[in-house]
Amino acid sequence: MPWLFIAPITLLHLVVVVGPSVAGMYYSLTEWSGIGKAEFVGLDNFRELFFEDRNFLLALRHNLMWLAFFLTVPFAMALAVATLLAQVRIGSMAIRTAFFIPYVLPSVVVASIWRMLLDPRLGFGVALENWGIKGLAYPYLGDKNTALAAIAFVDNWHWWGFLMILFLTAMQSIPSDLYDAAKIDGANRWQEFLHVTLPGIRPTVFFMLMMTAIWSFLVFDYVWILTHGGPAGSSEMLATYLYKQAFQRFEAGYGAAIGITMSAIAGVMATIFVLLRRRGWDV
Amino acid sequence: MFKKKGRSRLIPNYIILILLVCLALGPILVLFFNSLKSFTDLGTNPIGLPRVILIENYVNAWVQGEFATTLTNSLIYVVFTVAGVLVLGGMAAYSLARLDPPGDNFYLVYMLTLSTLPFWLYVIPLFIMWRNLGLLDTRAGLIIMYIAFNSPFAIFLLRSFLMSLSRDFEDAARVDGANEWQVMTRVVIPIMWPAFLTVGLVVGLGVWSEFQAALIFLQRDELMPVTTSYYNFTQRFGRDWSLTSAGAVMMIAPVLALFLALQRQFVTGLTQGGIKL
Amino acid sequence: MYTGLKRLVPLPLILGLLMAACAPVAGPQSGEDGAAGKVQITFWQGTSVTADCIIDVAVNSFNEQSDTIEVIAEKKANMMDAVRPALAAGAGPDIVPTHGPSFVAEFALADQLMPLDDLADQFGWEELFVPWALNLGRVQGTLYSLPQELETMVLFYNKTVFEEHGWEPPTTMDELEVLSAQIQEAGIIPFAGGAADAIDNNEFFFTEFVNKIAGPEKVYQALKGELSWTDPDFVTAIETLNRMFQAGHWMGSPENFLVTDFSIARAAFATGEAAMTMEGTWIYDSLVGEMFTEDSEHGNDWDWVPMPSLSGEAMFNIGTGSTQSINRNSEHPEAAAEFLTHYNSPEIQARLLVECQSATAPIHLDPSQLEGVEPRMARLLSDFAKASAEGNYGYTTWSFFPPKTNQVIYEEIEKVWVGDMTPEEYMAEVDAAFQEELAAGETLVIPDR
Predict the structure, then answer these.
(1) Touching subunits for chain A (3+ Cβ pairs under 8 A)
(2) Domain topology for B65-236
(3) C400-442 pLDDT, tens digit each
(4) Residue A1 within any structural domain of the chain
(5) Which of A86, A147, C220, C435 could pair with A235 as two cysteines, CB 3.0-4.6 Å apart?
């Protein structure tokens, strides 16, 4: 009887997620167009990916850069702003709401707004020029040196506010007598942050670092909508590369191998955090 | 409570916070302004207030972007996914929290581990399977997927909410001779509403914004949710930003209205684990 | 809370949604017999005005005269983008459109299309189409597609802007480069262009520069496998292209080019912000229908010259703009073939050109049927026909190059533009892809010169 209640959703999850995941592992070992028979080729796809496919290695590098960005910039912003916001009372709720709004917008809309603002002919740079500030009207998404950074900026624009709210919520659960004690000890604001606030919200920060590490290897939306991975592959990510291989070039086996690689990396990230936790880190 | 000295100490805080609020809200305001401009106005005045307000953009976008169809589609996906997740996830959560099935700990670990499997691992085989089952390019196919994606989160949240409630009411009902089904429908569900609302909001928002699964699993224009349809719309009218901005505003208006009305639930809901992968 | 929510979600709304969710939607596949007992086949078109016209002229006329078949025209916002995933899904329309033979080869090799040889015999397609064009639809000897939209590329220029500045349209490559610099000096963008929304448009530049600079004879030899793509003349062609790109002749800088959409580029040309554009006959409809209409505010006018070549001799690159195939999974291939025969008949094709400004299929067409075509366009079509009849034509990549090579051509060229690759390295990649496809027998049928 208890299992009867659990069965339907479990079955659905098995069919949609678990079964296909196992199948994906098999298909990654085949040469397969997605139609007809899959031909078993062993580890050929992986050999090609890691030793021959420069575009794949480039995408992998971009994902690592993406990871480095998202493990630092949004966290620094969110921690700093949460600390500032924790101290204010008047207007606090309104400010919080404002920071949270970008997070609830669909990615297509966020991308659409920023495609407009980053345009060299109609974007914010042109508006600034009208006010006398020159030199910022630039095709940020068309330059191989700035395209990836521009996409990361846009993604972060909608993301960091959410992170900030998480940290703020965690900060508010820190007992206030800890702060009082710090004050008695003569701690300044920085020392207070370092010795009271940061330890207090460490579990939240670590959890979010872990989620960011896993998630950053799966990013697709913003890259696809803003540049399709271009120009010249300078913003290609593993997910956009997989999409192109599997759904545009009929290389489903090869695409599956990319999917396995992405999952393996995400799995390694998760394992690292689990091990750190076992070692006694209060994660 | 507020000493004068304390307040002036906070002036730098306010300056930084207000600048960042401008960064968060400014682009959305620009989107709104641009949605009211003519194309030539936008060309010479890309950021500022519209010189002449053009409501026609909304009418044109509504018709050309087929928002009547796609907003309905999105609403269908949201309503059925949320309903499915609440019913099926709620049943599982109730069982786990109250009926103490043997092996429930094992099950929780299973769900926790497998819910982190990334979309890109199983998308290709799932695509092939959906094709073979005739579920590809159907509403039902997409809804089933969405329910499966969102259920682990719902089960965890509903289960922990239930665990925090006392069993007294249920026991009283049992003493009165109610069977398990009656206990669940008459007693448990009514007190569960706040948790249902949170899960519904989080899942609903996720489905409303969802892009990649819809991009891959739907082909027919008439089934597209508003996200993918809007994406095609922007590709087609790339140049006409006043038109696409009007479309974007129509698409986010319901979300913003709901968000502002139910802010508190939204924030608690999303911070309780609505971190979507 | 409970009762509050109950009031929030009225029952009629839920019922309405439930009905909407269950309501049948027109199927993507050839349907069951329609209401009038007709076999239904699906045919995709875009959402432009031209597409409406094509549906009106070609589809409606067919449905009126057929008692057994009904063609359902479905309008798709991003028709060509939608084809790939639809085919990958084993779905898609009965009549599959593609951008050109190169794409057909890709789909055919992935076993997505139906062989057409038997249907060609049955419906007399060998007699209907110009032989070289029909042969382009063969993949490894089997016919998979019918050619559409006979086309070429030329240099369109903004006549008003040219006259204002006293510029003369160029005839040689050197003149083109000098003129581009002059135009840029005058504060005008020399070329409108952009491929931000469709990376395959980059193939235009390879087509024009390689054929015009290395010459079609060499391209022919290379396509036959008798000459390597690393030949210095090919490299020179890409170097010239890149030099002009780096000079900012397209939209001001390579970076600007790379964020420009097709529609933005066309608007820049029409308004005179850019003076020229390397485009094809396919922009006929938007040229006269949107960009330079009589009531357009910018007051500009347009004209064309053949894209300059090294020697200055007029030469046209030949191509077919799109193709039509039959879906592997179509339930009614014969009905689809019957519609295709109607669609490609001289009568319908002439009407498409005159009434819809849509290019004709490469079929045998009587000149008298072309009355009513815009004079500049008529001149273009007759010059083009004359030059290619004399065998003086070059090769568009999307019609004559095998699929993987073509993909390398339009994807990797961006790496040259952004400085990640030299023209030599680029041509070496093109050659590597080509040799692989040559060895696998996946090259297309190249007509003898």
Answers:
(1) B, C
(2) MetI-like fold (1.10.3720)
(3) 998 889 989 999 999 999 999 999 999 999 999 999 999 988 8
(4) no
(5) A147
Domain C39-151+319-379 CATH class label: alpha beta
Nearest CA to CA, how far is B140 from chain A (Å)? 13
pLDDT in tens, B230-276: 888 887 776 678 888 999 999 999 989 988 888 877 777 666 644 43
Contacts of A214 in chain B (CB under 8 A): 116, 118, 277
CATH numeric code, C153-318+392-439: 3.40.190.10
Domains of chain B by residue range: 4-57, 65-236
Which tokens sit at C422? 């030299």
Please choose, from the candidates C283, C317, C294, C284, the residue with its C-alpha nearest in 3D space to the C-alpha of residue C394.
C317
Chain B residues within 8 A of C26 when measuring between CB atoms? 222
Which residues of C are less than 8 Å from B233 in CB distance?
77
Q: Which of A17, A89, A97, A119 to mutate to test the interface with B (most CBs of B within 10 A)?
A: A17
Task: Check if the beta carbon of residue B88 is closer than 8 Å to that of residue A13.
Answer: no
Cβ contact, residue pair A17, B227, below 8 Å: no
Give the whole-angstrom CA distance, residue A224 versus residue A214. 19
**3-class DSSP assignment, residue A281:** coil
Closest residue of chain A to C414, computed from CA coordinates:
A232
Q: Which domain holds residue A85?
A: 61-278
